[in-house]
Amino acid sequence: MRYDLVIFDNDGVLVDSEPISNRHLAAYLTELGHPTSYQESIRDYMGSAMHRVHELIQERTGRRLPDDFDEVFHARVFAAFERELAPVDGIFDVLEKLVAEGVPYCVASSGSHERIRVGHRTTGLDRWFGEGLVFSAQDVGRGKPAPDLFLYAAERMGVAPERCAVVEDSPLGVRAGLAAGMDVYGFTAMTPAEKLTGVQGHFSDMAELLPLLS
User: Fold this and answer.
1) What is the number of other CB atoms lying within 10 angstroms of the CB of residue 194?
2) pTM of the model as a whole
């Protein structure tokens, strides 16, 4: 393994949550008078922290989202997670091999700690991501595409940025990893490779990841 730490994004990389969350985000924004399609939600918000939703809506319309927007949205998404959420195919095999090889890993997500934990508990990923291995945009001042979250995770894990590999599936996340001075690998299950630019390599199946990192 060429790296001392593998940093995983969460949504779309560990848990197959992006279709669920963007379907509900598009529906809720439309309900509030901001017509948004599923494809537009993926384009504008995939991989970002919630503050980006607020900022883009206000920038485009001059209107603020309701004060309870995050609370209502997360309640809807968490309920859907309990019914529908699954781990990304092949991720358990990747984590098993990292543990077997003694390679440290963690998750750095734009989602809240609650969102990460709900998703991990529902899918069984919680056994792989114990205390000290979960980092959220809540932990830093700026979410992706700023590098702050990845730099924070690396610092807490005691690894220099240049010794880290980031696994991402969104353009915003890729930008954040590159800005942090880390090597980034683009997962193309949902995002076309041409939108994940500047990465060390692309892969569409989790079975392809570890050979890229070796």
Assistant:
1) 8
2) 0.87
